[in-house]
Please model this.
Amino acid sequence: MAIEKKFKILIHPGLHGRPAGEWVNFLSQFEGNVEVSKGYKSVNGRSSMALFTLLPKQFEEINIKLTGEDEEQFMEEIKIWETKAFRNEEEYKAGDVEESILRVFEETE
Amino acid sequence: MIDEILSPESIQVGKSFATKEEATIAAGNILLENGYIEKEYIDSMLEKLDKEPFVTFFGNGIAIPHGMLNGVKHIKKTGISFIQIPDGVDWNGETVYIVVGIAGIGEEQLHILRTLGDIAVEEEDAKRLHEMEDVNQIYKTLNKIAVHFGAGNVGRGFIAPLLKENGYRVIFVDSSNDLVEKINNQKEYKVTSYDKESTRDNLVEKIRALHTDQDQPLKEILNKASLVTSSVGPNNLPLIANLLDKHIEKKVDFIAFENMYRASTYVLEQKDSLHQKIQEHDVVVDKIIPLQNIENLDLIVESFGSIVFDQGQYIDKDKLIELSEVVSKGDYEKEFTKKLWLLNGLHVCLAYYGLSKGVEYIHELYEQKENEEFIKKINSEYLKAYTLYSNQDTEEVAEYQNEINLRFSSKKSKDQTIRIARNPEIKFSKSERVHGPLKYLIKNGEEVFAMKEVLEIIFNNEFKEVDGFIDFTKEHLSDGKENFYSNYWKEDKALDKFSSNLGK
Model:
């Protein structure tokens, strides 16, 4: 079975190095297929390299599609998934502000 | 002259290291020597390696050592270094052949990761990079500079945003001092696309421009570019051919985004020596950009856009421009004719019909009941002609045509009939958008009411406000229809058929 949802990326400046790495780790709890797309382009969500090619910037919308078992349950996990990140450019540029644990995605529909 | 994230000096090939720490320090030192970072950033890179090693492995034999988030303050400007290690070095149990040191600020780092991802996501491509020995080639692969000739409406409103989406840094080249100056002062502009329901803004940032006369910088940038493109209008292409021939030293991919049959090949054929300098890619471009009455660089364009590559020339792994909703590949001959007849042909016929009725904007034609019959007839004549030519399913073509009418009738388009009617000496010439389909219809004994009406209109009016119309009348229409058919369209053999269908 498959389920898909659209999300806005909340963290600054987007899904870059570490959050993308954490995302791939986080996905190891789910056994099925993960497809992430932005606009017309769709990639394997388990590869951070492939994710980067989407240029997933903050406040942009991506589509996540899960295929496998317990996909609905895991989609709920995605909705509340948190990782260490910055909220905005000011925090990011301040340099001495610690990163917070932030929710990464917001469901858009 | 442009903010380079990578310079040839930051690329090293054929190195060897015993540990990932040594390789990271080397990558950091290159960044330091080339002025991208302060030396503290290297400590931050090592800290990252120690605390979050998994983030520094990129995949497919590539590592991306970079600093901790609090190391960002030691970055002077965004940059990368590139070290190739043919024997490999151990990286958390994986073997790495390429180390890319990254000093990226904010969104810049996303762009770097995206470029690396594009190059390395396919194992085969990554391997090619492991073995690439030519520093200049590595430089071009990673820097992705596109030089675009023509900073006019199509260049700014359609091509530059497309190139940016494909990860290119865009440098415009134009012959207008005013435009070059504006671009270099503003460095960004806004493209607003409209469809029936809504509009959407897209900011095109970090752009620069050169003047066509700036020989030295132009030479330099053309030889750094991995793609050269144009949208200058068919008449100016010989000029572009001269510039490319004069400046380019090593072969580069070239795409002419022009409303002209195989425009890229046309440029190539201007000079024998260009065969060693450009690799041509022919495309069919479709996007309506009305005349703009805005003083600054911002543009309003329709949201529809289409670029069709010749499937015989499009090589997927080149990744010049990726296939998408907008970009596709197909049978060039058919695609070109389809667009030239069904869009451009219909457009120009509607424009002259509209001019004869005193209509300013093309969408207004669709709002007045008395034009319904003409619109219906001209559509069905073009539809008939194209299906006769292509043998394509009528319904499919009708759907394409329907879409075009929707685009023309959009209230937001504000597209002037005098714009669409301009340069009649090209538009009405032999085998072009009017004569091409007309010939098919007459040859096959089909009726041509609406096209006949368009001919009546151009023979019986003086459209002084239309660019090129007075010269066109003087040179080709003043001797009457029969001379027009035989001299301009070279239809002497079919003269009787043309005369009986279209009038003497």
Observations:
- The longest strand of chain B covers residues 79-91.
